[in-house]
Known about the structure:
The protein is an alpha/beta fold.
Amino acid sequence: MEILLAGGAGYIGSHTAVELVEQGHDVIIVDNYSNSSKEVINRIEKITGKQVQAFEADIKDKTEIMSIMKETKPDCVIHFAGMKAVGESVAKPIDYYRNNIDTTLTLLECMKECNVNQIVFSSSATVYGEENDIPYVETMKRGNCSNPYGWTKYMMEQIFEDAANADENLSVVILRYFNPIGAHQSGEIGEDPQGIPNNLMPYIAQVAVGRRDHLTIFGNDYPTKDGTCRRDYIHVMDLANGHLKAVEFARDHKGYHIFNLGTGEPYSVLEIVEAFEKANGIKIKYEFGDRRLGDLTEYWADAQKAQEVLGWKTERDIEDMCRDTWNWQKNNPHGYA
Ligand code: NAD
Ligand code: WQD
């Protein structure tokens, strides 16, 4: 299949590109590099040994996207292009609504005009909000999001649902990611956050490589066994494989479908620090700090549906996630720079 990856130069998009190319698909990466580097394209080509089509364009630019779609005639689109920093979304809500919603509408309009009928969307566990019981199941109501970023995902899911209801030819697969970490085992691609990392694993990796002095653990008074929050961390290559399955599913099924992509097994912040130390033989200096506003105590996926319907399950464990993160970071101490 020809698959257009909107935002395909980013962290999850680049790993998915490798997985798709290695499984015999052709990818077309479209990215404005607002949160990624052009070097990613060279690295994808190095890993796969294949040339990859890449276009520099803003997904909000309908003229550009129409022209790329007409030229490349994809069978399917995967929509990764979005702004994703929770804290920043509180400070800059308009930017988040503009970019995330507008990219979605533009892609759907261009797809309709170019007769492209399959789309896979990067959603997030954040749409389960603050009031659902754990583990999260796809049938639960979404809402009560704690920040504008989460609301953009909530709204985009609604847009896709309405679009699928109105167009019997459309296939929409919503993938709700839990906490993606890790890197491709080659160490050629990985997560390269700009500035101070917001997320746990990139922060730990930067402490390990000496770019940060120590990790601050946000709260040790949560009602968990060690007092720190628990999350469902998933290896980014398992997540990439989930996209492969989703694309194949979209080809054969019309309508609107939602899948959790998580392992179903939560780890606490302290357990992650310990796992990283053990996997890599490196001590991570940390201090306990205040709770971070908006953090939930714990959540994880019920991952049954993806297993039963997509035939997908995770194959990599926490040790793989920690080892591959470090392999990427130690080989690229300053990311792609
Ligand atoms: P990322 O920032 O690394 O990748 C997003 C890519 O989209 C970047 O390359 C960026 O340059 C590009 N982009 C953004 N706006 C664009 C636009 N208007 N036009 C063209 N390109 C644009 O993020 P990621 O971690 O790879 O996440 C991919 C998707 O998955 C995002 O939608 C994110 O919200 C979602 N998601 C991520 C996580 C996570 O923890 N990483 C969890 C759940 C969901
Ligand atoms: C994990 C745990 C922190 C950094 C976020 C988004 C979510 C989804 C995935 C996009 C928490 C703790 C972190 C640090 C710490 N993204 N932590 N010190 O918040 O679970 O999820 O990314 O959709 O929507 O909210 O991930 O990696 O930021 O935090 O103690 O310096 O690590 O408090 O318990 P989170 P995270």
